[in-house]
Amino acid sequence: MFKSLFFHIGQYLLLLKQALARPEKPAMYWKEMMRQMNDIGIGSLIIICLISVFIGAVTAVQFSYQLQDSFIPAYYIGYIVRDTTIIEMAPMITCLVLAGKVGSNIAAEIGGMRQKEHIDAMEIMGVNTAAYLITPKVLAAIVVIPMLVCIAAFMSITGGLIASVAGGMITQAEYVLGLQSFFVPYNVFMMFVKAVVFAFILTSVAAYQGYYVKGGSIELGAASTQAVVYSNILILLSDYMIAMLLTQ
Amino acid sequence: MIIAENVFKSFGETKVLKGITTSFYAGKNNLIIGKSGAGKTVLLKLLVGLLAPTQGRILYGERDFTAMDEKAKRAIRMEVGMLFQGSALFDSMTVEENIRFPLDMFTNKTKKEKLDRVNYCLDRVEMEGVNDRYPSETSGGMQKRVGIARAIVLEPKYLFCDEPNSGLDPKTALLIDELIQSITYENNITTVINTHDMNSVMGIGDNIALLNEGQIAWQGNKDEVMDTDNSFLENFIFASPFLQRLRSDALANRRS
């Protein structure tokens, strides 16, 4: 088991080294990166907005329930929704969802290219396939996913406002007061650090799974599933490590 | 010219190639034939560098391909074109984009120059006017021809074809053979073809290497096939009663 683990870690690192080689034609990589930014960003916008609105709403409702019969002021709902969203929910939930949506898509796309000999065809042309197929995806994700996380945070806070005001828990003014209270800009920095690290993990792990796929459709399906499972585990692990590093 | 020098290839305990030494000549159609599992595809993959030999050398002219690092191998690959069994056309690109891809990636030609070259290659494989079609909108034979157009777009010195006729009707298969042959002769390309197709063997086989259990069992050209007394080659090429009858008729005609 450990031998296999070390083998995969080594192979993953070697693939990343190969992917970071100088591009043959930067313009081609730029074009591919733009395509990926569109696929990852625009393609995931609706699902991320929907999920975020409900997460914010649920957080507000649950916290309001916790505050019943307590001496904590009601405007804390806004404060709690804001901070849980920025520090944890927006980057983590967004990236877990994207690991499922984008990660499985990347693994299937690259794995399909491997099976249909597209990667071999590019190799024979002299293309550095690791660089051409992986780097634009990773870079696109690193640019776009923090933007999505930002939008997710905004939508989540908006969801909290809608739920708490519409539910009669607090007034809009109280919620806004909560949002403006005890604001620590450093938390936003932490959110972006998480978004960038998670974006790198979910794209590179998925690309690795797809790039080395062998066999037929069953193996391709398995690679796609593994891409999601391993990305999720690594995202949660790195979430813990970032939290430890940035809050000490 | 490409030379395989005492090439061995094993996968774990399984020895697939056991000391292949042969040459593939410029301006000729060099065919690799043999039963399924004889090691043809492995040899082809070794020649293009998709696999590394366990032992032995592959020489492109005097350049030792096996001793090169990845960067140097990529430079050699600029001189290589390959037609895959399944064509390996990129699904998300149109025919034109597929053929233009190597030009976009490796040349600094203007848009017009690239388009002219793409159209020339399409014209060369008799596929004019399909620039905007996607691979899924073309037939198997058309995909093979687009694959050839993509393989020759950078004017390669070496052309590799893996089962170029598989899955095609006899007439289209003949057309593909004629195309490969004329492109080889016109441009003095070293063409290496991995095939099962006996029409190809007898039609365009300038230099034929027969593989059996990872070794060269026979080497010669299409004319020598007819006169062979190599029993393995005889059993392989003239496997069906129809081909046996054709051969005996041909030999009888030659004697009379």
Largest sheet features of chain A: none
What's the number of structural domains of chain A?
1
The proportion of residues in beta strands of chain A is under 5%
Report the mean per-residue pLDDT of chain B as an integer: 89
Spatial arrangement of strands, main beta sheet of chain B: 6-7-8-3-9-10
Distance between the termini of chain A: 34 Å
Structural class, from helix and strand content of chain B? alpha/beta
Structural description of this entry:
The complex is a heterodimer of chains A (248) and B (256). Chain A has helices spanning 2-19, 26-67, 76-115, 118-125, 129-166, 172-180, 185-211, 217-247. Chain A is built from 8 helices and no strands. By secondary structure, chain A is an all-alpha fold. Chain A is elongated. Chain A has one domain (26-247). Chain B has a 6-stranded mixed β-sheet with strand order 6-7-8-3-9-10, with helices on both faces. Chain B has a 4-stranded antiparallel β-sheet with strand order 2-1-4-5, covered by helices on one side. Chain B starts with a strand and ends with a helix. Chain B has helices at 40-48, 70-77, 95-106, 111-124, 140-152, 170-187, 198-204, 222-226, 231-237, 241-255; strands at 2-11, 14-24, 28-34, 55-60, 63-64, 80-83, 158-162, 190-194, 207-212, 215-220. In chain B, α3 (95-106) packs across α4 (111-124), α4 (111-124) packs across α5 and α6 runs parallel beside α7. Chain B has one domain: P-loop containing nucleotide triphosphate hydrolases (Rossmann fold, 3-Layer(aba) Sandwich), CATH 3.40.50. With 256 residues, chain B is of the alpha/beta class. Classes of the chains: A mainly alpha (248), B alpha/beta (256). At the A-B interface, α4 of A face α2, β6 and α3 of B.
